[in-house]
Design goal:
500 residues; mainly beta; Jelly Rolls; Tachylectin-2, Chain A; 2 domains; six-stranded antiparallel sheet
């Protein structure tokens, strides 16, 4: 079994991971299991021979937004959010007209009816250099995502959690603040910070209905070696200031070890590598799973830029991580999920993945940002405006697949409960591959009539291929029973399975 987990995953025994995954919750919880089984927790597989889990990169499609406004002349920056609401796609993205003295950063808004053609509407909300003829919402704090909080009244339903500074009357200290809005366009900031710490990266927040808590993902800093990492808080509310604060920060006012670290680079990552941010969320098809898109920054050894900037310039790529609890994240083969494109073939550059996911037919659509310049290269952006927003496409459930080659491979799952009369597979056998499934009891013995020899070969590319044994698909007699699934296949990618 070839995968890599975050350090937190090592704190749990494999048995507890299997039990939690099969139940679809943490141990001891009574909420129902997943609607579909993805391979986002590798503990689902108890045996693999001639098979491996592989990350499948997203397919980069067209550029959908260019920096063509005066307030975007420095760059369209790293972070964005996309939401689908009532048939319309809404996007909040970050832009700058300059950096340092005189430069202004803004949160901008765009919308689309088809996900391909985006408009920047004149909102009339914020006076940029004397004119309200722009798509700016009046926020200058840029490190957040827009989400709808189901626990708030309509006038506060939209939430944005980002860094900010208290007023002089309140002490002027920096922190992480909550903004609320009735429509995602008109925003009001809380007077007091939500978290008394800094986090100059994309702060991710969502309400976890299964666990009845707010998940807050922020930047942490490790002290030895000094590097960025990803940390996580669980909060019961977003209306009160959390008592948690940095005690012995490695850098500035950032968390170090005061809250759990969920992702950090290790000796399998290249030297001088940091995790810049984790764009994570519950999976839109089945929220009992969590998907994340961390950006990895390779810090340069160059010293031509002064001080801190000279040590933190470098290219960046997006990888994929998956989880069944948003605490233990698995990295699999560490392949790039969204790599820098050929936009600047003479040098390395950067890619970031935004928050939000759109379902269109057999596809998942995601939106991210690409850059010709590397992190920290302000001078390059002063010479040439940088940053575009692009669309990526992924297959439904397609983040990680169980792959086999020319020789037959085998993979067996932990016991799972039969919850429907048919077994459906999301798979691709290509033209030359094939797959069979055996249903086994808890001791690993084939159930009569459901062995691999009884299974009709599957030879197709389908999001929901129905498994049959000697022409029979009905599993009603097994309803509620726990079985192990054993997959035997060649030249196949298996993405998920489910009972319906």
């Amino acid at each position: 079994m070839k995968f890599v987990s975050s350090p937190v995953a090592g704190l749990r025994s494999k048995l507890m991971l299997v039990l939690a995954m099969v139940a679809g919750t943490s141990a001891g919880s009574a909420t129902p299991g997943p609607a579909r089984y993805l391979f986002l927790n590798p503990a689902l597989l108890t045996r693999m021979e001639g098979a491996e889990l592989k990350t499948n990169p997203a397919s980069r499609r067209e550029t959908v937004i260019l920096p063509d406004k005066p307030w975007e002349k420095h760059l369209i920056s790293f972070f964005l959010t996309v939401r689908e609401e009532q048939g319309k796609l809404r996007m909040w993205y970050v832009c700058r007209d300059g950096y340092g003295a005189g430069g202004e950063a803004n949160l901008a808004y765009a919308e689309s009816s088809d996900g391909l053609t985006w408009t920047k509407p004149n909102l009339g909300l914020y006076a940029y250099k004397g004119s309200r003829d722009n798509n700016l919402v009046g926020l200058h704090s840029l490190e957040g995502v827009v989400f709808q909080d189901p626990n708030l009244p309509a006038e506060q339903r939209y939430v944005y959690v980002t860094t900010g500074k208290a007023s002089a009357a309140d002490g002027g200290a920096s922190g992480i603040y909550r903004y609320t809005s009735p429509d995602g366009l008109r925003w009001t900031r809380d007077r007091k910070p939500l978290i008394q710490a800094g986090s100059d990266t994309q702060n991710i927040v969502w309400w976890d209905e299964r666990r009845k808590e707010y998940v807050v993902i922020v930047r942490g800093w490790d002290s030895d070696p000094r590097r960025r990492k990803v940390s996580r808080l669980s909060l019961p509310t977003l209306t009160e200031t959390s008592p948690l604060k940095p005690v012995r920060p490695a850098v500035g006012n950032y968390f170090s070890n005061e809250i759990p670290t969920i992702l950090i680079c290790d000796d399998q990552d290249p030297a001088r590598t940091d995790i810049y941010n984790l764009s994570a969320q519950p999976y839109v098809i089945d929220p009992s799973w969590y998907v994340g898109f961390p950006t990895f920054l390779r810090r340069s050894v160059q010293t031509d830029a002064p001080g801190w900037k000279g040590r933190h310039m470098g290219p960046a790529e997006v990888q994929f991580v998956g989880s069944d609890d948003s605490v233990a994240w698995h990295r699999y083969d560490r392949a790039a999920y969204a790599a820098p494109s050929v936009a600047a073939p003479d040098k390395k550059n950067m890619a970031f993945m935004g928050a939000g996911m759109v379902v269109r037919g057999n596809e998942l659509w995601q939106y991210g940002t690409e850059f010709e310049s590397v992190h920290g290269d302000v001078a390059a952006r002063e010479r040439k405006t940088d940053g575009v927003i692009v669309r990526y496409v992924q297959r439904i459930d397609g983040f990680v697949s169980l792959n086999t080659g020319n020789r037959e491979g085998l993979a067996r799952t932990a016991p799972v409960k039969v919850t429907g009369p048919r077994l459906l597979l999301n798979l691709n056998t290509g033209a030359l591959g094939e797959l069979r499934v055996a249903l086994l009891d808890r001791e690993g013995l084939p159930l009569p009539g459901f062995g691999a020899a009884d299974c009709d070969y599957l030879e197709n590319n389908s999001l929901g291929a129905v498994v049959s044994w000697a022409g029979k698909t009905d599993l009603s007699a097994l309803q509620g029973r726990e079985v192990q699934l054993e997959f035997r296949s060649t030249r196949t990618q298996l993405y998920s399975f489910r009972f319906e």
